[in-house]
Design brief:
15 strands; Antithrombin, Chain I, domain 2; 8 helices; alpha+beta; four-stranded antiparallel β-sheet; about 400 residues
């Protein structure tokens, strides 16, 4: 039993690293003119299930995007979704809908694990109502619509992810004017908190985005929210990536207790003051926020391993017995709200597949070629498993006859 548990833990640890990696790479591709929110947790399981039913070259392309083979991906996806479901305040769901004429491979469906399976009637309004209802129910109303056009869809695979946590201690509300920077001249609701425990949760780091300041806001369950502030000239995508580095251990946190007064860090002031009580005190002043975003995954098809999957071809024979399918849409809609009481976020991600045009492989009459090594040539001795070249050389003269 211990071996089974340890094996499962290893799968989860690996899946977490892979999903975080995809999330970081995705963040570098996004635009940040306005607020932005996304989750790789909603995308990775869908790509894993597509890979399980894909043929080459789509299978390999999805494997590269996932960071794990198509054979291993479904089990990792199930463990990942199980981890989310076991986390207090969080939920994750998979949904599958197919047109009546689509005969789905039973073995592929079995790999989805806990999921709902419904029918697409072909009546767009009725199908839209059913799938929107699923999205709203699975996210507790945070997301009320599936982010795609259902006209012509033969199969839809979707995920829903929600995160909710109340703060262990609520913030104080107030108003504060902003003197400089992009928010200058405007007034916002300020969320503030102070206390000895917060001092331990403020850290700074040197990252790929330069110096950043991070504050970990603790939830009352198992979810925390990390706030990361970069330098004034740091690009948004770079600061987001720095956050991933901090979470993954790619950049080392420096506790503020070890920093000297006066050294500049983004948005951080360190001083030594007199106090009536002992113990260091930390304070956080921040603005609450609500952000919403929609993402077309096919605009970054290479990143998600979907470059070939959108083209005509019999790529998903392991999913459909009836006729060839291709990916026609892949989208995500997400929202997040940070308030005085807590944090909540939801996302629905969906992939739609339509009938693919048949690709007939033509056969040709060909000629036979014979290569003769009758002049100088090179050689390489290669380690098969790693591709390491162990020895290489050049044959300038042939061996003597009978040698």
């Amino acid at each position: 039993m211990v071996a089974v548990i340890d094996g499962r833990r290893g799968v989860v640890v690996r899946a977490v690293g892979l999903v975080n990696g995809l999330g970081a790479r995705w963040g570098r591709e996004l635009a940040f003119e306005a607020g932005q929110v996304w989750t790789a947790v909603g995308v990775w399981p869908l790509l894993a299930m597509l890979a399980a039913g894909a043929g080459e070259p789509v299978r390999s392309e999805l494997g590269r995007a996932l960071g794990v083979s198509a054979e291993e991906a479904p089990a990792a996806a199930r463990e990942l979704l199980g981890l989310v479901r076991r986390t207090p305040g969080c939920a994750a769901a998979l949904g599958l809908w197919t047109a009546e004429r689509v005969e789905v491979e039973p073995g592929w469906v079995a790999q989805l694990g806990a999921s709902s399976w419904g029918r697409l009637t072909g009546e767009v309004a009725a199908d839209r109502a059913a799938l929107d209802r699923w999205a709203a129910e699975r996210t507790g109303g945070l997301v009320r619509q599936l982010p795609m056009d259902l006209a012509g869809a033969e199969l839809v695979l979707a995920s829903a992810v929600t995160v909710r946590t109340d703060w262990a201690a609520p913030f104080r509300r107030g108003r504060f004017p902003v003197a400089g920077g992009p928010w200058a001249g405007r007034e916002f609701e300020q969320l503030a908190r102070s206390g000895p425990e917060l001092f331990e949760r403020i850290s700074v780091a040197e990252t790929s985005a330069g110096p950043v300041t991070e504050v970990r806001v603790v939830g009352d369950g198992e979810v925390d929210v990390h706030l990361v502030l970069g330098g004034r000239d740091a690009a948004p995508g770079a600061v987001v990536a720095a956050g991933f580095e901090l979470v993954s251990g790619g950049a080392g946190r420096l506790p503020v207790a070890d920093r000297v007064d006066g050294k500049p860090w983004p948005g951080l002031e360190l001083t030594t003051v007199e106090s009536a009580s002992s113990g260091d005190v930390g304070e956080l002043r921040t603005a609450g926020f609500t952000v919403r975003a929609e993402h077309d995954l096919l605009s970054a098809a290479e990143l998600f391993g979907l470059r070939t999957a959108v083209r005509d071809g019999d790529w998903f024979r392991g999913i459909s017995r009836s006729f060839p399918l291709k990916v026609s849409q892949a989208r995500q809609v997400a929202m997040a709200e940070f308030s005085a009481k807590g944090f909540e976020a939801g996302a629905v991600t969906a992939v739609a597949m339509t009938r693919s045009a048949s690709v007939v492989l033509r056969r040709f009459r060909v000629r036979r070629a014979v290569a003769q090594f009758d002049r100088p040539f090179a050689f390489l001795a290669v380690h098969r498993a790693s591709g390491l070249v162990l020895m290489a050389g050049w044959v300038a003269e042939p061996g003597a006859a009978g040698a």
